[in-house]
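Two proteins, back to back. First:
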Amino acid sequence: MLRYQLMDKAIQPATAEPLHTINLERYSHLTAAEITTQYSYSHVLFVATDSGYIKKISVLPKFEKTCIIEIWKPEQNNIISPIKTIGYLKETVSSIS
């Protein structure tokens, strides 16, 4: 019987509580990035909501908390449409949808 390393054991959480929670909102897509700053690095999450918004969330490792940095509302012709894909472009340090 073949045993696959990723399926052998469950992934354990890094913290006892979820890093980010919010009431009455569902996320459809998520991408994560590690961004180098002047003195260290920072983990950033880009999440797409079911209502068509993209949130840029920074993870504060010292406090095991998150901070919402920006909320984007991508639209075409003043119409908000659902996000179909989301990704991160390291070269330009930006999110695409």
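And the second protein:
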Amino acid sequence: MKRRDNEVTGQQISSSMPYYVYILQAADNMLYTGTTKNIEERVARHNRGGGGRFTKGRRPLKLIYYEELNSLKSAMAREIQIKRLPRLKKLELIKKQ
């Protein structure tokens, strides 16, 4: 992980942000799983109608679960794992958070 000093405080800051795997609940109770670097912006984009055909007609969307991961590779692998789960297992995962 690359690091650099913050010019204002002198503290080291990370130049790489974490990745997130998230689950959204749509207005019709369908679940959508995705990956992003900026979870707030991504959810807002989904709710503006961008970011995918599946979510476009199912607004409003509510963030109901997320996990933070250290790399895009691990986030994408986790997204695939979650997408393969049956709905009931996804709901159990959400309840545990």
